Amino acid sequence: MPKTEFYDAYGAAHPNVFGMRDEALHSVRRRHMSHSFSMAYIKDMENYLDGNIQIQKDEIQSHINRNETFDLKKILHYYVIDVLGELAFSQSFAVQQSDDESRVPPVVEHSLLAAVTGSWPMMTMALKKYLPYVPHAGLKSLFAGRKACADLASVSIDRRLAGLSVAKTSLTVCNHAFHHNPVVWGEVHNIFNPTRWDEPSITAKSRLLMHFGLGGRQCIGKTVATANIYKLLSTLLREFQFVLASEQERAGVANGLYKGKIPEMFSVGISDLKGPLLVRARNR
Questions:
Q1: Does the keyword Ubl conjugation apply (predicted)?
Q2: Which of 13, 138, 253, 284 is deepest in the core (most CB within 10 A)?
Q3: Are 93 and 156 in contact (CB under 8 A)?
Q4: Which ranges of 66-105 does DSSP label H, i.e. alpha helix?
Q5: Alpha carbon distance 100, 155 (integer Å)
């Protein structure tokens, strides 16, 4: 099933592999890129993951030594950015070591802009052409974010190539709605309960999940993402124990106040916890 006009908002003059709607061209481009996202390649690059995990561990240990509260969400985010820098752009953004959030590429702004302009397919091209001239600080920030992402990709390509040149009805499936369909998942679909997967009847439905998409348009970075999730979290949970920093929140957890509840989220296509995740840690 081809992608709809919504994805025109994610591309530029030369559509990227995510926003590209031409299926034949996408298939060729994906084949060219597939090795760089394969498990074999990830294993070859494992030393970069290990190096960044060590930075993360040292950061957590420093908080433990100083008996400090820290934002676990932020340091996990910084780890992801640095690893992506190593794997995709041949150099880390050094966000973990500098603790400088300005080094984080403005991907959120880019995604938000695309989601807004892509929601009006008939006007997407016109919006992309004229919105940059609207004297609104918020819009200018979004377009500046998109330009920064494009420039970052261009610099990386230039460095790697060393100067070489190189009438239908659309059907849209919303991942969130698909994953929260009570007909499939029951009335408890909106309750956070990881142990549900212990039930064989629920486990059998795992094939219905599409958090990375499905088929030929499945996210090409799935292997990179899952490898990092398994490796980082298993390492951190083996070596550290994390508790909520707020005594009131810890009491709420003990009393079942948050059981089955999902915290307030923020989404620009992928949901994220709104606000920090303040914790304390100790060595196991």
A1: no
A2: 253
A3: no
A4: 72-89, 95-98
A5: 21
| Whether pLDDT at 192 is above 90 | no
Place of tokens 């330009």: 147
Q: Considering the entire predicted model, what is its pTM?
A: 0.70
> Distance (Å, rounded) from C-alpha 193 to C-alpha 256?
13
How far, CA to CA in Å, does 217 sit from each of 1, 23, 29, 180, 277? 9, 9, 12, 22, 33
- Rounded CA separation 159/136 (Å): 34
pLDDT, one tens digit per residue, over 42-95 is 788 888 899 999 999 999 999 999 999 999 999 999 999 999 888 877 788 899
As a whole number of angstroms, the distance between CA 57 and CA 51 comes to 10
Residue type at 215 in one-letter notation: G
The residue type found at 108 is V
Closest CA to 101 of 62, 70, 74: 74
The pLDDT confidence band at residue 232, using thresholds 50, 70 and 90, is: very high
Query: Positive or negative CA dihedral for 127, 132, 135, 141?
Result: positive
CATH of the domain at 156: 1.10.630.10
Phi, psi of 279 (to 5 degrees): -140, 170
Number of compact structural domains in the chain: 1
Q: Is 57 exposed, middle or buried (0-12, 13-18, 19+ CB in 10 A)?
A: middle
The pLDDT value recorded for residue 248 is 92
Residue 279's beta-bridge partner residues?
70, 244
CA 135 vs. chain centroid, Å, equals: 30
Q: At what angle do helices 137-161 and 72-89 cross, to 10 degrees?
A: 40
pLDDT of residue 188: 82
Amino acid, res. 89: F
Q: How many CB atoms lie within 10 A of CB 236?
A: 20
